[in-house]
Write a structure and sequence with these properties.
seven-stranded mixed β-sheet; single chain; about 375 residues; 13 helices; about 20% strand; elongated; four-stranded antiparallel β-sheet
Length: about 375
Amino acid sequence: MQIKSAKFDHSCTKEHYNRHVNAKYIAMKYVERFRVDPSWAIQCIIQTVKEDMAVDVSRLKAWRARNIALKFIDGDEREQLGRLHDYKLELLRSNPGSTTVLHLEEQVFKGLYVCFATLKDGFKYCRPLISIDGCWLKGIYGGQLLTAVAIDANNCIYPVAWAVVQKENKDNWKWFLNLLAADLELNNSHHWTFVSDRQKGLIPAIEEMLPNAEHKFYVRHVHNNFKKNFNTLGLKEGDRFQVVGPGGQFVVDIKDKTCTCRRFDLTGIPCCHAMCAIWYKHDNLENYLDDYYKVSTYLKTYSHLLNPTTSYEFWPRATAPPVLPPAPVQPKQRGRSITKRRLKEDEMTALLQKGKVSKKGSVMT
């Protein structure tokens, strides 16, 4: 075939539509981008496709492409719930001695509790303080994530156990606390302190399950002032000292590691009054630290290894029937999604003090 003549000047406009650039193609082409930024904006997707391929796509196609990509990355929720029995067996195989409890009602998912054996062993060297909290889970079936964390020798959080439940109420908190107390051997709750927000049903659950434990609540702003200069070091009797300084007069007992200001007793770290007495004795401050803060304790906490799990294709197969998913949550209302949390009353007051004035109550004329 021989071409003898050709006309290269065209007056037609360029076509910016390509039927092959569908939602699935866009999703797979930019899957790594979606993996890094799951909330990639629709308008940015449209603009990126236009710049890379000179093709115009609609907002609906871009939205579908994002959904396909996220489903490919995160997997199908119904399928994942159906294999919870296999997941439980895999956790017990890879981490023997762990606790995994699956709560079902007529094969319908109600809750899953997990506490690894290595975390239970390391918790023995953490301070007797447990922080409990819960948060919402996004997805088709919703739910709540309940967590329990401790504090290690380096004052960092140490995960202990977690659970996924359908809703946050007293019964689910009792179920979680009962399993947690059994795993951590909290037979005597006198020596334990629980810190939490005012979660739904949590306060009565702790009072019922751990009646003798201290229960404190989070505070947003705590300001502690320690001063280095003291006026006098008063009466001294053996290991007991009378210290006069900021805040008044206090009695420090070096032997029992106590101070009437209560900071030494509560934290296990010498307070400013105790430091004054220790320095007076020309002693080393590190000798009076609680064992929870020592490097040896920190190393014991993390001396246990958490074993990884294999991919789901290699999980053991359970003989139990698949877990059925709960009822889907109600679809969200139309409109722009809320990306910022609602501010508390004290936070609103702080904003007003910075010069931002609310329009609430104003009348337009």
